[in-house]
Write a sequence for this structure.
């Protein structure tokens, strides 16, 4: 499968490392439930092979930090509390996974020192096998699974009902476009869960945090943000800065599933028991105003590579995001007029049967 673009690497002003506090907030909002679920549902004695003292954790879609380090240390601290009842001292091995184009240099240069685990990189798409059979005890994925493995094929055919001219996402688009995205999500989750079903030991766990929507809804604030970029691109088309075809053929491969969609995928796979699944909110204060300028910076960190690869021009990308900052009032108006709860995320903990 074709892969989505990775986040901006390095530690510059536009990097994911400097612009991923929203993703960190998503983990912080779920941290307590994760700790409780691991404590109540993970039996260290049963998941470890006889005589083994190595516990393997995989972060699927780790990016460049620092959020992955916070998540891994939190999970390990919970496991250390459980270890008090274990006969041997555990050693922890953390696999940091992302696509081959991820900035692993920045990731490993910023590894915490000292730390309570051994670290290894596993490059490659998580839409497929990454590890030997029954070798991982806990798999974690935060702010990653909403990236599809590819742009839905129907969106690339001009004679298709899902052809999406003038837009770069399914937010506000036709039912056919939304269905094409949903179908690709279903296909991707089937591959993802099949691979994890082979890699996770019996009794092991998969923890998922991703943007999600309540059942019956499609619109998510991240989708609105991407649609905002599409509006800016169309302004550039009208001014002759950009050709219409460049917008018509650009579709950001993001999807924000409902619990119904995720539950159906898990049940179809059949390898996992659903321990927890809910729609939560990543924001600690729902009444606090959104920092729109910061939101634009976050948007650039996650979307720049995808847009740049498509437009093929650094100058056009600079123009796009400069305009986005100047039009932040439009972004704010789009967010607040949508009538949705900003910061909605899908949280799931699955246990290997």
């Amino acid at each position: 499968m074709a892969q989505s673009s990775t986040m901006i690497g390095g530690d510059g002003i536009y990097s994911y490392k400097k612009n991923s506090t929203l993703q960190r907030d998503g983990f912080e909002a779920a941290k307590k439930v994760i700790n409780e679920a691991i404590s109540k549902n993970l039996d260290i004695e049963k998941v470890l092979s006889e005589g083994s003292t190595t516990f393997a954790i995989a972060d699927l879609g780790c990016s460049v930090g620092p959020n992955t380090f916070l998540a891994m240390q939190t999970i390990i601290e919970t496991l250390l509390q459980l270890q008090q009842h274990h006969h041997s001292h555990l050693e922890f091995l953390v696999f940091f996974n992302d696509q081959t184009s991820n900035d692993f240099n920045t990731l490993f240069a910023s590894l915490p020192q000292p730390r309570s685990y051994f670290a290894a990189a596993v490059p490659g798409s998580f839409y497929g096998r990454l590890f030997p059979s029954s070798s991982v005890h806990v798999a974690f994925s935060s702010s990653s699974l909403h990236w599809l493995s590819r742009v839905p094929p129907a969106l690339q055919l001009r004679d298709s009902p899902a052809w999406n001219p003038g837009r770069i996402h399914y937010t506000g688009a036709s039912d056919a476009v939304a269905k094409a995205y949903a179908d690709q999500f279903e296909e991707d989750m089937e591959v993802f869960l099949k691979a994890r079903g082979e890699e996770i030991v019996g009794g092991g766990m998969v923890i998922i945090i991703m943007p999600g929507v309540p059942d019956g809804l499609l619109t998510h604030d991240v989708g609105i943000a991407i649609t905002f970029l599409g509006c800016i691109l169309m302004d550039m088309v009208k001014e002759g800065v950009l050709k219409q075809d460049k917008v018509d053929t650009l579709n950001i491969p993001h999807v924000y599933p409902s619990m119904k969609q995720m539950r159906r995928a898990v049940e179809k796979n059949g390898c996992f028991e659903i321990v927890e699944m809910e729609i939560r909110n990543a924001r600690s204060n729902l009444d606090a105003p959104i920092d729109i300028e910061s939101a634009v910076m976050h948007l650039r960190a996650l979307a720049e590579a995808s847009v740049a690869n498509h437009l093929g021009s650094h100058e056009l990308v600079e123009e796009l995001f400069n305009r986005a900052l100047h039009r932040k009032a439009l972004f704010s108006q789009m967010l607040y007029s949508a009538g949705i709860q900003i910061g909605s995320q899908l949280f799931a903990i699955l246990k290997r049967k």
Summary: The two ends are 28 Å apart (CA to CA). DSSP finds eleven helices and seven strands in the chain.
